[in-house]
Amino acid sequence: MSTDLAGAVDEAVRARPGGGLGPYVAWYDGYRQRGVAPGVHTGLPSPYLTFIVTLDEPLVITGHPDPAQAAGSFVTLVGGLHTAPATITHEGAQSGVQIAVHPLAARALFGVPAGELAGIDVPAEEVLGGLALRLQERLREASGWAERFAVLDGALLGVARPSGRVPAEVVWAWEELRRSGGSVPVAELARETGWSARHLLERFRRETGLTPKAAARVIRFDRARRLLAAGSPRPLLAELAADCGYFDQAHLAREFRSLAGAAPSAWLAAETYGSGEFRNVQGGEGGAGPQWEA
After folding, report:
1. Residue 282, by phi and psi: left (phi above 0), alpha (psi -120 to 50) or beta?
2. Regions of the chain where pLDDT drops below 70
C-alpha cells in the first residue's frame, strides 16, 4: 500500500522471507510515513521477537515493556517477547523494516536464547555486532522494498547458524501452544514431554523468555487482536472472547487492558487511521494493515 496525498507519504509493504529463512523469520514489514500527523502507537505483545532496522529516522520508544528501562531512540532494535505494551512515538515521519523473528530462532540469528532478551529492547548491534549498522546502510541505499527485502534475505541467511541447543521438548511445546491458540494446559504439555511442570517452565522460559502460561496468554491475545482488527464487520466482543478461548467478554477486556494498555474498543480506535486502515508499527501482525508484496 502506498499513498501520496498533498506531499504526504504513507507506505506499508509486507513480504515473506525467501531463501529458506522460513524457520527463522515469519515476515518483513516495510513502512515509510512522511508528512503525516505526529502519532503515538502501541508496541504489542506478540509471539515473535521484534527486529527493526530504521531507514531515515530513528525509532523513538517513550515507554518500554519494562518500565525500568529508560526511554530512548534506536537506529536498530531487537526486542524480546513481553507481556506489557511499549509506546512508540513519531513527529510525522518514520521509516524502516520490521522483521518478525521466531523466538526459537534467536540462538541461530542472534547467538543468544530469546530468554536473554525477554521484556527488553536493545540496539541490534548488541547481538549482531557491526552487521546491524552495515545492514542499515545497505537498506538505505536500496532502490525499493523488493531490493530491501532481498538484502535482508542474504544478510540473515549469512548469519543463521542453527545451534542444535533448543530442546526438542521446548520446540514441541511451543508449536503445540501456537497450534492450539494458547489453549493447551501446562500440565498437559508437561505430561506429553515427559518433564515435570517445573522443569518445562524453566527450560521453556530460558528459550523463549516467557513461561508456558504467559506464552499462552500472548498467543491467545495475538489471535484476538488480529481478528478484531481484520474483521469486517467487526466481531462482537462476546463472540470474539468465545472464539479465542476466553472465559467471557470481561476476561477478554481484562487481558486487553493488561497486554495492550486499553480496552479492545479503545485500542482499536487508537490504532485505526481516519481512512479505516489499521497500522501498528512494532505490533506484530496487524489485521488489514501492510499489504503482501506480489
Report:
1. left
2. 1-6, 272-294
